[in-house]
Amino acid sequence: MTKYIVVAGGVISGVGKGVTTAALGKIIKENGYKTTLIKIDPYINCDAGTLRPTEHGEVWVTDDGGEIDQDLGTYERFLDQSIPKKNNITTGQIYKAVIDRERAGGYLGQTVQFVPHITNEVISRIKDAADGYDVAVIEIGGTVGDFENKPFFFAVKALERELGSDNVAYVLVCYLPVPAHIHEMKTKPALQAIRLLNEEGISPDFIVCRSQYAIDEIRKNKIETYAHIPSDHVIAAPDIDTIYQIPLDLERERVGAKMLKKLNLVSKRTPDWSAWQLRVDAIKNPAKRVRIGIVGKYLSTGDYSLTDSYLSIDQALIHAGAQLNVGIDVVWLDAQSVCIPHVTELQSDSSSAKSELQSLDGIIVPGGFGVAGVEGKIAVIQYAREHNIPYLGLCYGMQLAAVEFARNVCGLRDAHTTEVNAQTEHPIIDILPLQKKLIDDNAYGGTMRLGAYAAHVQPGSKVAALYRAARAIDMNDMVIERHRHRYEMNPAYVALLEQHGLRFSGRYLRADATQLMEFLELPDHPFFVATQAHPEFNSRFSNPNPLFYGFVKAAIVSKQE
Ligand code: GLN
Predict the structure, then answer these.
(1) What is the reported pLDDT for 12?
(2) Which among 395, 400, 435, 490 is the best mutation to test ligand 1's pocket, defined by most ligand atoms within 8 Å of the CB?
(3) In what order do the strands lie in the sheet with 416-417?
(4) CA-based nearest residue to 245, from 284, 272, 218, 219
(5) Is the pLDDT of residue 346 over 70?
(6) How far apart, in whole angstroms, are the C-alpha atoms of residue 53 and residue 23?
(7) Is pTM beyond 0.85 here?
(8) Which atom in ligand 1 lies closest to the alpha carbon of residue 448?
(9) Active site residue 30
(10) Phi and psi dihedrals of 390, rounded to 5?
């Protein structure tokens, strides 16, 4: 039987509930239990694919093609384990399933109601995701007291009634503000969150106190008394330098042992955190540092600009850096203001764009959509290519690298992607007939090439060497990465670009015998590698992605030179 740990948030969201969930899962897994993590999102979207990244953060893509909230990414990065799309449950999915079933006559004669039909649907989805695991950690999105997450609290309470309280543990992650004008940590909002949770019939077993500082004994006691729990179940969680510190901090408070005890489990093996600790140390005190430019679109929400839309890339760089003992300074370059029409204009010493680019040890052009910032990205790619700066192109970053090469090396001045210029004489990047039909039918939800695809990489190529070194390639030279895009490298131009020195070093072989270009590289450049995939979705703290690892390594060499 699966045991459950339910993680809820109090006071405000965005204080590390997802990371706490991931860290708890990691701790339980380290104790020898088969563990999975489940994210409940109370919004009515069926998935995150249609949400605005600048508002909600990046869309995470699973192996099985789900477009999901980025918390699932945090889970995978901590657990070093793929998590399928069914582990993300949204209100939209629940209601859609119940209403579809009602229309299909699945409840004939019954009045279909919030309780039990909606709540039972929640329970059955939780059980389905948890099936086969010893422990499932469930994170309930939002904060306790939100209208939207009521059905989910009801469902986990019902699960507790069914399984017994030995088999379900509740963790409340609260925020304790320290208002600047009084310089004192306030517990009141946390106490109110506890009360709101009590109103759902739930008493927390653990309270994680997120704050700028570690909570002191006086305040711990206050919370302990109010929540009727032992004070050693009130856990300090002050701000830290790196999220990967959190499992170590929780273990210092022996949260793993206490949690296992609460769930009536005994540890099956003693966790060994030494390798994890080494990586954390490398993040905190790296032997050296490199500067990596990420050329993206940074739209702001109100007064805040969200770099969260590139979270997985940032994390993948950190993972590679932790393994190489190098700190990563990310320089966020706005593609729309870099906007240098031609690199020749970068030659003037007064150009701030030029000095910005000169200071970089490596450049990434990440995934993207639409026309905004495209010329800026192309100009930066040209700069990286001509100045031997390590370059890593991700999805749009590969497509635009091909466009840049076609324009400036093959002399096709008009070359473009038809996403930006449908009339171009040289559609280097174009849409496949199948995807075109989906767009014409206006079916935007979940219609891209999504999820894991296996590519055949060319033996002897740089890409093959990188995957081989990471033991991430199989006997048939196949590598697997995740995708999220509509456009592809146009097969009609592959030969021409290759004649001019570009190498398409990995291909997806379709059942209809056509090939899709998955990787490209420049053999004579220190590191110029791009992929149609999103390797950032396949990088774990203990197991960095080979392309990011190779890129950061090349950036170190570039800096030394
Ligand atoms: N806009 C491009 C496409 O749809 C690239 C997508 C991406 O970078 N994720 O193919």
Answers:
(1) 84
(2) 395
(3) 416-417, 427-431, 487-489
(4) 284
(5) no
(6) 25
(7) yes
(8) 4
(9) no
(10) -50, 135
Confidence of residue 306 (pLDDT cuts 50, 70, 90): low
In this structure, the number of other CB atoms found within 10 A of the CB of residue 63 comes to 18
536: annotated active-site residue: yes
* Alpha-carbon gap, residue 364 to 100, rounded angstroms: 44
Residue 302 has pLDDT above 60, yes or no: no
Which of left, alpha, beta for 54 (phi over 0: left; psi -120 to 50: alpha)? alpha
Instruction: Provide residues with CB under 6 Å of ligand 1.
Output: 367-369, 395-396, 399, 419, 484-487
379/9 Cα distance (integer angstroms): 44
What residue spans of 325-444 are helical by DSSP H? 335-338, 352-358, 374-386, 396-408, 433-440
What pLDDT is recorded for position 349? 42
Q: For residue 296, how far is its CA from the centre of ligand 1 (angstroms)? A: 13
pLDDT tens digits, one per residue of 373-423: 899 999 999 999 999 999 999 999 999 999 999 999 999 999 999 999 999
* pLDDT at 7 exceeding the cut of 60: yes
The DSSP code for 547 is H
Q: What is d(CA 185, CA 176) in angstroms, rounded to the nearest whole number?
A: 6
Give the gyration radius of the chain's Cα atoms: 25
Q: Which two tokens stand for residue 546?
A: 């080979």
CA of 555 to the centre of ligand 1 (A): 25
Provide the pairing of β-strand 168-176 with 35-41.
unpaired
The pLDDT, as a whole number, for residue 341 is 41
Mean pLDDT of the chain: 90
- CA pair distance 477, 460, nearest whole angstrom: 10
User: Out of 46, 209, 395, 410, which one is annotated catalytic?
Assistant: 395
Catalytic residue (choose from 58, 251, 518, 536) = 536
Looking at residue 270, its pLDDT comes to 93
